UniProtKB/TrEMBL annotation:
Domain SIS: 125-264
Superkingdom: Bacteria
Pfam families to which the protein is assigned, alphabetical: HTH_6, SIS
Biological source species: Caproiciproducens faecalis
Domain HTH rpiR-type: 3-79
InterPro entries xrefs: Homeodomain-like_sf, HTH_RpiR, RpiR-like, RpiR-like_SIS, SIS_dom, SIS_dom_sf, WH-like_DNA-bd_sf
Gene3D superfamilies for this protein: Glucose-6-phosphate isomerase like protein, domain 1, Winged helix-like DNA-binding domain superfamily/Winged helix DNA-binding domain
Name assigned to this protein: MurR/RpiR family transcriptional regulator
CDD domains: SIS_RpiR
Keywords from the UniProt entry: DNA-binding, Transcription, Transcription regulation
Transcription regulation found in the keyword field: yes
Amino acid sequence: MNNLLAVRIRNRMGDFSKGQKLIAKYIEEHYDKVAFMTASKLGATVGVSESTVVRFATEIGYTGYPELQQAMQEMIRNKLTSVQRMEVTAGRIGNNDILDSVFNQDIDIIRRTMEETPHEDFYRSVDAIIKARKIYILGARSSLALATFLSYYFNLIFENVLLVQSTSEGEIFEQMIRVDEQDVVIGISFPRYSKKAVKALNFAHNRGATVVAITDSALSPLALEADNLLLARSDIASIVDSLVAPLSLINALIVTTTLKKSEEVSQVFKRLEDIWDEYGVYEKVDDKSIEPAL
């Protein structure tokens, strides 16, 4: 268990009520489960009231139960196995409708991301990207989908974008061999964090490049190398990585850079539309064909 949390509990143990001692013992033995329990569920599990659980959190120095829960989640963020994530997901959804539960979890993730993302870092990142000689984008494992999406649109806006292929560490460093202080490197990774992404950002940082990390927490190993840290929540207990908030953040990056380069980008898109029409890239849809039948 997290040393700080353990110390807080140990220091207050003599002052706890009988019910609070039950909570403390259960947390010490099952903190990985408690991290995803509501206050009412924890209370029911150990046989105390929800208000007793809330008082316990404040007794050990947190502003409330949500802050205590967040501390436990941060503690296990990079430790849950796929099997454990399945168990936690099943427990959280219970008998609720799965579709509605997933939608509601994603809505909450985006809301928390909007509240927590530092605006200053976001706009500094945009300015650095626009000024960069070359933009390197790296995402490993499930984050590769985000990196590919960002790379696709940035290649329409800029002439100097490289999606770093992360098949092996050797290939990563070969592709980034010329990176220096004139460049921007955007690294994307979420729990469980990719070692390749961490090493690539360390490589870029040591060579003076501006490093933009898109990750979930200031405790993420990517944050150590970042000049600008863009935080986007992911649901660490989901069976699959919930990437709705990172994708929304990346959408904001694309929109902001596009608007800041609007005149230049507008000309590029006009030329693209001509090319797409000439070569029939997109299927034309007749308006009449999509009218609802009467």
